[in-house]
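Late entry, evening session. Most of the bench is empty. Finally got around to the prediction I had been postponing all week. Sequence below, unchanged from the version circulated by S.P.
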Amino acid sequence: MKTVQIGNNLKSFFTEIGKLSFFAGRFFKEVFTRPFEFKELLRQCYNMGNRSLFLVGITGFILGLVFTLQSRPTLMEFGAQSWMPSMVSISIIREIGPVIIALICAGKISSGIGAELGSMRVTEQIDAMEVSGTNPFKYLVVTRIMAAILMIPLLIIFGDAIALFGSALVENLKGDVSFQLYFNKVFDAIEFSDILPATVKSFFFGFAIGLVGSFKGYNCTKGTVGVGEASNSAVVYTSMLLFIIDFIAVFVTDIFFEL
């Protein structure tokens, strides 16, 4: 009985992966064909970017504060407080900032896309667009995925900057380190090999957030109950996909910069 259940679960999993892959393939086909919905794209960029700034800013600020407060006692034991700006900046820019902020955006943006498109599906608004001759996939899905691809990297850069400011504030209050000295050490420590991989993978984070949220909402079933399921599963699947993308990015970066 358990073997049959495991087999059914695996079948459902791979079926879901296949549908998601087909959905992604359709996106790449539609994104390069006319008409281009620039007005809707700008509206979605505003919804995802501007309305997420406060949440990302608060998250980044607390991240910088907590990370510095937790790391400072350990560095003080070895008399290595001067390494604090270098350690914090490299850790946040390379790994902690992009992943944490992408997860926050997954909770806000991906779930929002899933709930919005799911509501449109169960209330037959998407079906009405198809009957009227409009391409709902082009108007609803492509614009949201492209907006996520464009906005997530900007939100991550903004969150990283706020996190470094929070760290500098702690060092200024506890270590009497000026902001100018702190950021001089930060920019001395950061190299091109730290910024490029983090920036590149942030575009893939945006693609994953937009793709999964749109996929779950666009294929929503089971009425109003399905809207909640689509929103919830969008966050879960997106979070898992973000960790997989991050692992692949770190693995590829390690191989690339060793060559």
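Two things to note before I forget:
The chain has one domain: 34-258.
The chain has a mean pLDDT of 85.
Will write this up properly tomorrow.
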